[in-house]
Amino acid sequence: MNSTRIRFENVVQRFRLIRERPDTLREAFTRVFRNRSQVCDFEALKGVTFTISNGEAVGIVGRNGSGKSTTLKIIAGVYRPSSGVVEVSGKVAALIELGAGFHGDLTGRENIVLNGLLLGLSRQEIRAREEKIIEFAELGDFIDSPVKQYSTGMYMRLGFAVATEIDPEILLIDEILAVGDLAFQQKCMARIEDFIRRGKTVIMVSHALPRIQQLCPRSLLLHEGMLIADAATAEVVTRYEELLC
Q1: β-bridge pairing 92-95 and 83-88
Q2: Where are the domains of the chain?
């Protein structure tokens, strides 16, 4: 049986960027006649190759703009790569952006149902998990308030509770645990550790290196869109710190 959960082979993610906008219609016509291009291609990932097996906890580190979040969004299916091969096996729950997947005018309780449906659960399965989600999130009466009234910490509580209670095979986390109070962060860390013990695949992006070292035996180091290290976390962290010097 193939134990590979995620496979990237020579993956390129290219975005088209607008270099500058003309301030007036006259400037726009002038630039067209001068053949000055207003767009350029930016490669967020440049031929990235790696595999992650079932049950691995893997950190992704690198400077801002190195391609970390782009990698998670490709795994989550938010982006389709410009070229290369991506294979993902198993149900994915992603904590990538605060508020992602939430409808601001719906209550927390209603958003639990919405997110559960988006993640492939039936209404019966969602209802069976609802009280556990609410209990873990510790939102009190706010669970029946529109989420547009939530603080960033409250968003994180609800998002984490939903994503982990649906019991995915793959959990993606991108810096979201940086918000919220210390007690709840510790509660989240305990749940992530339980996921790892139960053989789930966890991929975490964070600038908090001690957290990566605590949870992830292996890490990937991205730099300017390229994978420059794939090794034990201690080795990767040392190399990353050298880049920062």
Answers
A1: unpaired
A2: 4-90+169-244, 104-165
Which residues of the chain are under the pLDDT cut of 50? Answer: 1
Say which CATH superfamily domain 4-90+169-244 falls into. P-loop containing nucleotide triphosphate hydrolases (3.40.50.300)
CB atoms within 10 A of CB 235: 14
Question: What is the pTM for the complete model shown?
Answer: 0.84
C-alpha 117/C-alpha 114 separation (Å) is: 5
How many whole angstroms separate alpha carbon 146 and alpha carbon 72?
28
State which amino acid sits at residue 30: T
Would you state the structure tokens that stand for residue 148, as one six-digit string?
């547009």
Q: What is the pLDDT, as a whole number, of residue 26?
A: 62
- Contact present, 28 and 172 (Cβ < 8 Å): no
Say if CB 211 and CB 188 are below 8 A apart: no
129-137: list long-range contacts, CB under 8 Å, 24+ apart. 129/165, 129/166, 132/165, 133/158, 133/161, 133/162, 133/165, 134/108, 134/109, 134/161, 136/160, 136/161, 136/164, 136/165, 136/187, 136/191, 137/108, 137/161
Of 75, 78, 16, residue with least CA distance to 50: 75
pLDDT tens digits, residue range 7-60?
999 999 999 876 665 556 666 556 555 555 567 888 999 999 999 999 999 999
* Closest to 14 measured CA to CA, from 225, 173, 162, 219: 225
